[in-house]
Amino acid sequence: MDFSIWFLAGAAMVFFMQCGFAMVESGFTRAKNAANIIMKNLMDFCMGSICFVLIGFSLMMSSNYAFGLIGIPDMGIFNGYENFDYSDFVFQLVFCATAATIVSGAMAERTKFSAYIIYSVVMTTAAYPIQAGWTWNESGWLYNLGKNGYIDFAGSSVIHMMGGISAFIGAAFLGPRLGKYSIDKKTGKKKSHAIPGHSLALGALGVFILWFGWYGFNGAAAENISQLGSIFLTTTAAAAAATVATMTFTWMKNGKPDVSMTLNGSLAGLVAITAGCASVDALGALVIGLVAGILVVLAVEFIDLELHVDDPVGAVAVHGVNGIWGTLAVGLFAKPITSGGDVISEASGLFYGGGAEQLIVQSVGVLAITAWTVVTMCATFFLIKKFNGLRASAEDEIMGLDTAEHGLQSSYADFMPVIPPDLQALNGKSKGMAPVAPEAAVQVTDVSTGTKMTKVTIVTKQNKFEALREVFDQIGITGITVTNVMGYGVQRGHTHTYRGVPLESPLIPKVQIDVVISKIPVSALVEAVRKTLYTGNIGDGKIFVYDVENVIKIRTGEEGFSALQDASIGDE
Q1: What residues contact residue 537 under an 8 Å CB cut-off, 6+ apart?
Q2: Range with the lowest mean pLDDT among 28-42, 95-109, 482-496?
Q3: pLDDT at residue 368 above 60?
Q4: Mind listing the pLDDT tens digit for each residue in 374-429?
Q5: What tens digit of pLDDT does each residue of 242-275 get?
Q6: CA dihedral over 220, 222, 227, 230, signed as positive or negative
Q7: Do residues 400 and 35 touch, judged by C-beta distance below 8 A?
Q8: Dihedral angle at the C-alpha atoms of 464, 468, 470, 472, nearest 10 degrees?
Q9: What is the phi-psi region of residue 146: left when phi exceeds 0, alpha when psi lies from -120 to 50, beta otherwise?
């Protein structure tokens, strides 16, 4: 296998992860901010590419490296292009962009677009390249620390931990979204409110894209086919174990498996294995993933419920917390591995007879990168907040950043709420039908022009509609009005959660059916509807009965009972 080709192919897979991040972040947030998130994920790569060309790559990978701390820019990409290492540049660039884009999700829905652009420039110009050079430049001080050096094969700390810590700092400087927290009147404590994302389908698509891209993320730097195969195995094992662990843990904790949290669990496992993907075996990968899957749930809830830092997508828990765990785990699970004469790994962790040396080296590296990130990002967000402004106005946040920042009414302009086909067919469907004889179903009343008319409104679950339609046909009601509605409120005895936070007054899809009757007794209709809808469980629905003063047919001017005779809204 030509590994120079695989090296660039892996880089292309990492670039495709930008799409995955965009889908996860937009899916886990509200629709009114989807375009804004897409623009941020596009522009942090494009702005970052320019900055990395100009100076970032030189600070990181220059052969003239000062004191093991920083590269001295030599501008080789401009004055020595024919001898420049193009492949390594592209490879390092896509990783740099990944570190930058992690922050977008944690600061979503309330950050000024201009502020995010400035942050991206700082991150890709200096903040990321300098600390990445410590680990991946052969002259870097972490690269040469200890017997085997600081091991972060593909970036659990260099990329993900730095991105996650930056995300935490940015979200803390920014403050929570409007309505995210309130003071509980009974306890006086700050209370978190769930703000569900608008599309779990988009979020899931993003996770699958990221998982696919992660094979390039972890595997692109493999030195031989045996190592590449081992990396693919450990990457898969850790991600799968984390996903199962998160699903099981949330199921046991909340009574039902949490979908969005389980998706985060997959990413947590991928982040955690990134540092040691080439240094651990299958057992180590499984353990790393299992811990990551539980850790991400605890971290999301702690950050939200205890620290009250608003992170809409869980970026801090996924990347920051599990970046730390995955990097330290190398000091525990690293194992010398040789396959077919190919050396896969040389380091030994604490659990494989290597003592604490590698764990100490890993700890020093984590502390150093953390300290650098805290200092640079606190300074960055402080200065942005002071001189440019960091947060969008309350009006812009309520309106949605798609409109406020980009002039879009909606990212889904062509999508309008519609009645499902089985409900659409009802309006007017019965007009040409021969209804069941009323006397075969219910006792009808003789009517005249002055007969009392009654409107009956039924609100129930959408899946009950077909059963109700059959009942209406049987008792002779051939015209009704159907509307999709949303019920607002908490059903007693039923607690729903989103990412570990109780959903307060969730909007629940319902169907509303309106019918005006005159000759069919109200009691007969009500009884038939009750028998059809009754299950004895919460949520069966409600029936509302109103007096109707008059009905006027617009086309003919007929009033009262005569106006109902075309079965447009009632009985015949």
Answers
A1: none
A2: 482-496
A3: yes
A4: 999 999 999 999 999 999 999 999 999 999 999 988 888 666 444 444 444 444 34
A5: 999 999 999 999 999 999 999 999 999 999 999 9
A6: negative
A7: no
A8: -170
A9: left
User: What amino acid occupies position 518?
Assistant: S
**Token pair in block for residue 113:** 């677009």
Please report how the helices 322-333 and 162-174 are oriented relative to each other, as an axis angle in degrees rounded to 10: 150
Enumerate the H helices of 275-407 as residue ranges. 282-301, 315, 322-333, 357-387, 394-399, 401-406
Mean pLDDT score across all residues of the chain: 88
Distance CA(359)–CA(150), nearest Å, equals: 9
Q: Tokens 């030509």, residue? A: 2
Neighbouring residues of 84: CB distance < 8 A, sequence distance ≥ 6: 76, 77
Six token digits for residue 174 = 């920014």
CB 511 within 8 A of CB 533: no
Q: Give the list of residues 6+ apart from residue 486 with CB closer than 8 angstroms, or none.
A: 507, 508, 509, 510
Please give the Cα distance from 502 to 504 (Å, whole number).
6
Gap between the Cα atoms of 165 and 381, Å rounded: 13
Output the DSSP codes for 504-558: PS-EEEEEEEEEEESSS-HHHHHHHHHHHH--SSTT--EEEEEEE---B-TTT--
